[in-house]
Amino acid sequence: MSVLELAGRALAEESARFAGLGWMRGTSGNLSVVLGRDPLRVAVTVSGRDKGELTSDDVVVVGEDGLAVADQPHPDKVPSAEAGLHARIAAVSGAGAVIHVHALAPVVAAEHWPDGVELRDLEMLKGFGRAAHDDLVTIPVIANGQDMRVLGDAFEAGFRADTPAVIVARHGIYVWGDDLRHARHRLECLEWLLRFRVETRLVVEKRGVR
């Protein structure tokens, strides 16, 4: 089995997992894995398919601009519209995989804290790669848009190597890691953290804490 086929199988399996959680409703969301760095080559899930029904063939290879490259088995396949942001994140962060889902908690959190969502003193932060105590973690929020170059610039402007996530307001969240499993573990922990932040907001505000 080729590297691309293996990547396609892994992307399909992870997509089905997130669809089952309700984080990739309809055809929303997309995942990617890095195949090579010089030049950058990223395998991204195709556009317009139910993410719970993907197969190992539902993947397309893109370059650093997010466009499909000619040298692949199916160069006519259409990559996700957000492939350009996946490639930008992979290039800037050095990540081996990027996950983009439409889980509700991150989007709601961004509505409450559009300048960034602060997290601290929560055990689950260790699963996100940060300390459980005495470590202020701010998840950046950027404005939504259809131009991936603009979104990429906004992501890069707020990028911190120790915070592997960005929320796109009124859209969804991107989380990345060394590989798909690493990125998934980070996403699962961060979704819990953001859900906790949203659901305890009124209690915290009554205490006079932002």
Automatic annotation (TrEMBL):
Q: What is its EC number?
A: 4.2.1.109
Class II aldolase/adducin N-terminal domain segment(s): 9-198
* Binding-site list for Zn(2+): H100, H102
Keywords of the record, alphabetical order, are: Amino-acid biosynthesis, Lyase, Metal-binding, Methionine biosynthesis, Zinc
Cofactor section: Zn(2+)
User: Which terms in the GO cellular component ontology are assigned?
Assistant: cytoplasm
Under the heading InterPro entries, the entry gives: Aldolase_II/adducin_N, Aldolase_II/adducin_N_sf, MethylthioRu-1-P_deHdtase_MtnB
Superkingdom in the source lineage: Bacteria
The annotation note on the cofactor reads: Binds 1 zinc ion per subunit.
Q: Which GO terms describe its biological process?
A: L-methionine salvage from methylthioadenosine
Reactions listed under catalytic activity? 5-(methylsulfanyl)-D-ribulose 1-phosphate = 5-methylsulfanyl-2,3-dioxopentyl phosphate + H2O
The Swiss-Prot or TrEMBL record annotates one GO molecular function as: zinc ion binding
Pathway(s) the chain acts in: Amino-acid biosynthesis; L-methionine biosynthesis via salvage pathway; L-methionine from S-methyl-5-thio-alpha-D-ribose 1-phosphate: step 2/6
Q: Pfam families in the record, alphabetically?
A: Aldolase_II
Keyword Metal-binding in annotation: yes
- Report the enzyme's class at the first EC level: lyase
- What is known about what this protein does? Catalyzes the dehydration of methylthioribulose-1-phosphate (MTRu-1-P) into 2,3-diketo-5-methylthiopentyl-1-phosphate (DK-MTP-1-P).
The similarity annotation says:
Belongs to the aldolase class II family. MtnB subfamily.
Q: What is this protein called?
A: Methylthioribulose-1-phosphate dehydratase
Source organism (scientific name): Amycolatopsis azurea DSM 43854
